[in-house]
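> tool_call: predict_assembly(chains=two)
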Amino acid sequence: MLSHATTRDWLIPYADGMLAVDERGRIDGHIAGCASCAGELGEVRELNLLLVTLPPAPPVAFAPFWLNLQAVLPQRRLMRMPRIQPYRRLGIAFAMAVTAALVAAGSAFAAPSALPDNPLYPVKQLEEGMRLALAPANERMPIQLQLANERLREAQAMAANHKPLLAENSLRAFRVIVDDAAAALKNPADPKAAKAAKDALHSLRLRLDAVERENANRGDDDQEVKQLVAAANDELDRIEQEDAVAAPPTLVIGEQATPRPTPRPTPRPTPRPSDKDHRD
Amino acid sequence: MAQSEEVPSTEGDAEERRLIDRSAAGDQEAFRQLVLRYHRLVINVAFRALGEVALAEDVAQDVFVKVYKALPAYRHDKPFKHWLHRVAANTVTDSLRRRRPVVSLDGLDQPLVSAGSDPQDIAARHDLQRAVRHAIASLPPHYRDTIALQAFGELSYDEIAKALDIPLGTVMSRLNGAKRLLREHLGDLVSPSEEANTA
């Protein structure tokens, strides 16, 4: 037989249905013969009833809610520039030029290869942002891919230096850039550029493998880095699949980041039931 | 305990992960889509805590601003929805605490949970709900945040444990402590009614 004190300790999880069957049975046994604890259980249930009967909100329209929220959201620098009218681009170019002059002294010391743990890294980010913003639409995609490659180089270095948080930030930035490049791939202004970019995406896969290797080489490999690499690989898969569906690949001979002598389907991590059949 | 309102699956949701990463990088359109998924949930939590739509919207706005600022540090190590619940619970209880002095339990001398549709009963029920909200606001922080997730967020014990990164046993212990204090604070208001006895 349970004591009053023990029973009272368990009344709240009992009323919330959180006790195992045998524990419930013991409480039931005590309550059946104890008016005091039964009364306390009634109070616990009354309180629960009060808590669960707090009413839900009536419907609230999303559009005005978002407009109000958007007005107070802090502005954050984004690694992409939406389409800008040419005359505005001139104005922005002038403003950027002034800014560029101001940061020139600092940037002179900032090696283009500055890593995220370098104090001059923000200068490098600023330079990259300006380069991307000022690029004409048809030249933006190669820059995006170059920046994506740079993010992976950073992630690889940070993983190797046991700085997983910085590696994760670089991987997230990588995904954003690649996502933008993918949008451009679907509507290529120049088919040749699109093909070259697509090949560059393949080379990014190799970089991703390198990041994963560096991360795995550590005794305590960072799970988030691992997941981000997997997510980035999935993203590249998706881009290639969508592109393959949209248009059959045309072979273009020329300068490519990673020449691929024979076009072949990219290996998918998804299970292939037919493999088993072939082995048999 | 009822589960929270329906939202698209979060765990393993690649699209959501993409929206989060893009929002963290400053893409407001991606953030708009995240807010679209969860604004109803957050407003509900805030409304249950505060009882006024306009206030709930203001607090929900604060919640999303906090989320937007904190997204770059979000590590996907727990479902986004649980993390959002935690931010929402903290924000609404803070807001409740700031408004606490308004409430008085005077005049509420009998249980009213099972009150009918009589205007007087409805008014009394609203007062009672307000008393419950502010009793929650008066709890010590670790109790308050835990019970807020149960009462306002309608999370299960297991979901609370995940949202707060604490063991299930700690959730049980905190809810135990919180409800004991609430019963003390609410006094006769939680005397058993017939409805509660059959629950």
